[in-house]
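Replying to the earlier thread about multi-chain prediction with a worked example.

Input:
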Amino acid sequence: MSMKVGSRQVDGVTIVDCSGRITLGEGSVILRDTVRDILSKGNKKIVLNLADVNYIDSSGIGELVSAFTTTKNQGGELKLLNLTKKVNDLLQITKLYTVFDVKDDEASAVKSFK
Amino acid sequence: MAMTDQRVSYTLDSSLETIDNAEEKATRIATELGFGDEEVMQISMAVREAAVNAVLHGNAYSPDKKVTLSFERTGGDLIITIRDQGKGMDLSRIPNPLAPENLLKTSGRGIFLMRSFMDVVEIRPSETGTELKLIKHVHGPTAGGKEASQ
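Result:
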């Protein structure tokens, strides 16, 4: 299953609902283009909802890091929401859990920007 | 075929499709060998990372270079070997992805993940390519093997 994304606005925060696989190739490119597009429109509060992302490889992990640093470098903030066990385990193994602000419900994720 | 001395090997192009293909084969074979869901995921992810290494960093997508992938059940081990035809990697230049200064790097986690998910990872670089050997100890019942090439 390839990756699909959809974005929506909630109280000034852009929620990106991702589903499928974030892997080398199409999945990583879609995520990169989506975050760049959001930032280019001046939206700097971003939440990646990964509830339906069932697989991430090292390239996908790199793309999450890239999205995080790109957003930060433009004065914004990017947070992760609703990690599956697989993705959560990967972030623990790679110590990226200490880098990302990870939330497990949308309301608190949105509020955390204020 | 008996539970021991099973071997299946493939010759694959240096393409993105090969990476998905290698992962799918690893998932199928690990499942057939009786690994649990968690171990199947670990094996397939390690093979995917090894295939990424071979296709991108080894063969650099060259249409003239091939990736060979083999799965072998020997005794209590599943042994997976992936070879590319690249220039070989410099192991001393692979940084520790857990070091604070490397945490925000966007690449360099592939071999680390392989080592996290497999019992043994052996890397043999040479001027004519790199061979990665991934070993997982088998705990469950196993299915039959076969010879194949594509």
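Residues 123 and 132 of chain B are 5 Å apart (CA to CA).

Feel free to reuse this layout for your own posts.
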